[in-house]
Structure formats: C-alpha cells, structure tokens
Write a structure and sequence with these properties.
about 500 residues; alpha+beta; 5 domains; six-stranded mixed beta sheet; five-stranded antiparallel beta sheet; 14 helices; about 20% strand; DUF4132 domain-containing protein
C-alpha cells in the first residue's frame, strides 16, 4: 500500500503506458535487468516505479528520449548550437537547436490565443521530422516564466504537457529568447541569434493601424477627421507598447535572469489615449468619415466598430422599424434614397443590391429588407436629436419614438443596447426614464451612457408600467411623474 504522500506507483503495465511502448517489451527488459531499477516492491513482492525515476532512466536512452518530457532531461552541460528559424503554415516561427541527441524546437505563434497550444501543437510537431523535443510558448505565465508547452514526438498520441521555462534553458545550455506578445513578429524572430542585444522595434497594435494612417495622410492636417484618425492610431500604438512593456515587467519579476534573454523591446511612443481628444471633435470627425465612399473609410469605420462599437459616431445603435405601424409608416415616408457610404458598415450591409435610404433629419443610414415575406427597415439610431423644438411626447413602440412640439417624429436617442424600453424592472426602463428626464430639460441632450444619472422615482415607476404598445406619454404626463404627482390619463 502506497504512503499518502508517495508519488503514484507504476506497475509494468503503467511503465509501458507512460513510455508508449508494449508492456511485453517492458517485462522482457525487467527480466533481463536492463530496465530502470525498481523504486521498490509492494507487499506481494511485485516491483513498482515512480514516474521521476522512470524518466531519469529513459532520458539516457536515445530511442526513448523523444518520449520523455523536456523537464526530465539531463543537462548536457554545454551550449547547444543554434541552427536558425523557419516558418510553419505562415503562422508559426520555429527556432531550432541541435543538442547532440536530436533537434529541440521552440515554436512561437504569431497570433496566440488561449487554446492554440493544445489545439495546434501536435499537428505542428508532426511537420518537424526527427525532433527530439518540440515546445511552444503560451500566452500566459507558468511556474518560473512564460508558459511553455511541449509534446512527445516519439509518442504515438503526442499528448501536450506543460513544463517550466527553465527546462528549455537547461537543455539548450543558454538563456531562451523571449519576445513580448506585441513584438512576436516573424522578421524579428528570423533575425535573432544567440548573443544579439535586444532589438528595439515598434509594437504591433491589434487593430488595423495602417488603414487609419493611410486615410489620415489624405486629409487636411488639423481637420476634425484628421485629428480623430491620428488620435486613434496613436492610442492603438500606445496600448500595444504598454502591453509589451507589461510583458517585460512580468518577465523580470517571475523569470530567473539566467534562463531568459529579452530578444526585443518596444519603441517608445507618446502616451496618448482616445479621451485626450475632445468628444465633439471626434464626433465631427466621424460625421465626415461616415459620409465617405472610399475603401479606406470603410476600413476605418469597421476598425472603430471593433475597437469600441463606434461610441463616437453620431449614431451607433441599431433598431428595426415596422412600416405597418402608424409611426413606422410616418417615419418611412420621409426617407430619401441614399448612396452607399461608410455609414452603412454600421448596419453590416454588404449586399450591393440592397435598397439604401437615409433619414434626412438625422443623416442616419437605413436599409430596407424583406424577412419572411414582410418588409422592414433597419436603421441606425442617433445619439442626440438635431432639433431645438422641445419635447412634446414619448411614444412607446418598438422602437420608442420622440415627437417634438413642431410635430416632427424622431427615433428616441440611444447609446446602449439596453434601452430605452418599458414594462419591467431593469436596465431598459431605467434608460427610458433617464432619457425622458434629460429631454424634458434639453431636447438636444445626448442619450444616457450609464445609470449614474439621478432619475426621479416617478419617471422610473412610469417606465416600469406595462403600457400597451402605442401608448403616448405627453409632456404633461412626464412632468407630473417627474414631480411625483398623479399622472393625467394617457391616450
């Protein structure tokens, strides 16, 4: 019986499974006394082995070495010759050392995600013939440095295992090279040689900065659109540089200096953030960019949508309008045909045959489409209303509508996907109540972006009622609710 703290005891069959060799062969080697000496014998007199002892024995056998995890290899005590790098499948740079017992590979994925190592490493290892060991650097940190995974090239199943960073350094006889996540570029890796000083290079943003800068250089310097794009590019570049510096700080904190060499450091850039540029400048810039038809404008709009959902667009939420409803028909009647501009990227409309419109009062893009035999309109909802006429009424439909005292109908301003809605206790009714409170004071007020606004309790209770669709809440009713007074009869 094994002790509580004793490692797992491996029988002859267990040793065979661990080394991926036939158990009959193990039994034969044991009988010939050329197998690893047993760690001990159980109460029945049968031999058993511990994993550590078995791997120590197998690590001196050239045939079995490729079935032994790298952290169980013995140190060769010399610096292994570095044989250069090669590219695999246009996604991975593979660095190779010759250790005397076979090639040892270190793989760097250019665009690593959390599942890449376990998912792709076995298939990548099969493309490296006669490898004694194959490792891949992960996206996070392990016990003594960057996460490092490996496969056993000599094992038929090639299971993935994790090892300490120092294991690789120990085997190759030198500090293993490290590139921060935003500097894992194939050109930098291919040029690296042992003993090279760190290369200073620009960190790679995770957004398409090229399209943004290419469009910026075509614009008048200092214009809102130019300032918006330059600020965006600088923000992305700063974020990438900041991420690379953070990786290097973690490396210095958690990794023994003797086991790692920094291969690249990020080029210093100004610490710019998007909020450094006034929001009104950004909105004016995007208003110009959204009206463009060129491919660079489309690319920039798509990048902004991926970055922050287009939060500085004059419209960034989407709604469906049913033209069969009374207000839907009224709104549709004023739409005008539109050319395809970058604004339609917001609606994800790529069909060249799509029927495109524009709301002439808000400039928002609109697409007419047929769904299950019914016509409907997809529209972008404005962030604020382009009018000075005061609020007259709120109309509870899908979407919620605003009518001003001059009789004009507008979709209710919207900034979040949670509202405005009504009929329950939740985010949507809170947004509706907040919006009503803001518009009663200022019809040009932007849609609420959060729930920090102190909304009057009466308006919140009003928004939580289960009003039937089509209910009209007049200004008098909204003001009464805001003051906590009885609400006049609704239509």
């Amino acid at each position: 019986m094994a002790l509580a703290n004793e490692p797992e005891r491996l029988s002859v069959a267990g040793c065979a499974r661990l080394l991926n060799i036939p158990w009959r062969r193990v039994r034969h080697l044991v009988k010939r006394r050329v197998f690893a000496p047993p760690t001990g014998h159980d109460t029945a007199g049968e031999p058993y082995w511990h994993r550590r002892d078995l791997y120590t024995w197998a690590s001196v056998d050239g045939e079995l070495l490729s079935r032994v995890p790298l952290d169980h290899w013995r140190s060769l005590g010399i610096q292994a010759p570095y044989l250069g790098a090669e590219t695999i499948e246009n996604t991975v740079t593979a660095l190779r050392w010759h250790t005397g017992v076979g090639p040892v590979w270190m793989l760097w994925h250019w665009d690593l995600d959390a599942s890449t190592c376990e998912r792709e490493l076995p298939s990548l290892a099969k493309q490296l013939p006669a490898a004694a060991a194959v490792t891949m650097v992960g996206a996070d940190y392990g016990i003594d440095g960057p996460a490092l995974y490996g496969v056993l090239p000599g094992a038929p199943a090639q299971p993935v295992y994790e090892m300490p960073w120092s294991a690789l350094s120990n085997v190759i006889g030198m500090p293993a090279p490290y590139w921060p996540s935003r500097l894992r570029r194939p050109d930098l890796m291919n040029d690296w040689r042992p003993g090279n000083p760190p290369v200073v290079a620009a960190a790679d943003p995770d957004m398409d900065i090229t399209s943004v800068l290419r469009l910026a250089v075509t614009l008048d310097e200092g214009s809102p659109a130019w300032r918006t794009l330059v600020n965006l590019a600088q923000t992305w570049q700063h974020r990438a540089t900041k991420a690379a510096k953070s990786d290097l700080k973690l490396l210095a904190k958690h990794t023994p200096a003797a086991t790692v060499t920094v291969a690249a450091t990020p080029l210093a850039v100004p610490a710019v953030e998007k909020d450094d540029l006034p929001r009104d400048i950004q909105r004016a810039g995007w208003l110009e960019l959204l009206d463009r038809t060129d491919d660079l404008a489309l690319a920039c709009v798509n990048q902004a949508l991926q970055w922050d959902g287009g939060e500085d667009f004059p419209y960034n939420m989407r709604e469906i309008v049913d033209p069969a409803t009374e207000r839907g028909a009224e709104w549709v009647a004023r739409l005008v045909p539109a050319r395809r501009t970058a604004a339609f990227e917001l609606l994800k409309e790529r069909d060249q045959e799509a029927v495109l419109f524009q709301d002439p009062l808000t400039d928002a893009p609109v697409v007419r489409e047929g769904v299950r035999g019914q016509t409907r309109y997809r529209m972008a909802v404005p962030y604020r209303l382009p009018t000075t006429s005061p609020l007259a009424e709120l109309i509870l439909e899908k979407p919620v509508w605003v009518r001003t005292q001059d009789g004009t109908l507008y979709p209710a301003p919207q900034f979040t996907p949670y509202g405005p809605k009504w009929g329950y206790q939740g985010s949507g009714p809170t947004i509706l109540a907040t919006l009503a409170d803001l518009l009663l004071d200022d019809i040009t007020a932007p849609a609420p972006t959060n729930y920090d606004h102190p909304t009057p309790k009466g308006l919140e209770e009003l928004a939580q009622r289960k009003w039937p669709p089509g209910t009209v809440l007049t200004r008098a009713q909204l003001e009464a609710a805001r003051r906590g007074r009885p609400i006049p009869e609704t239509d």
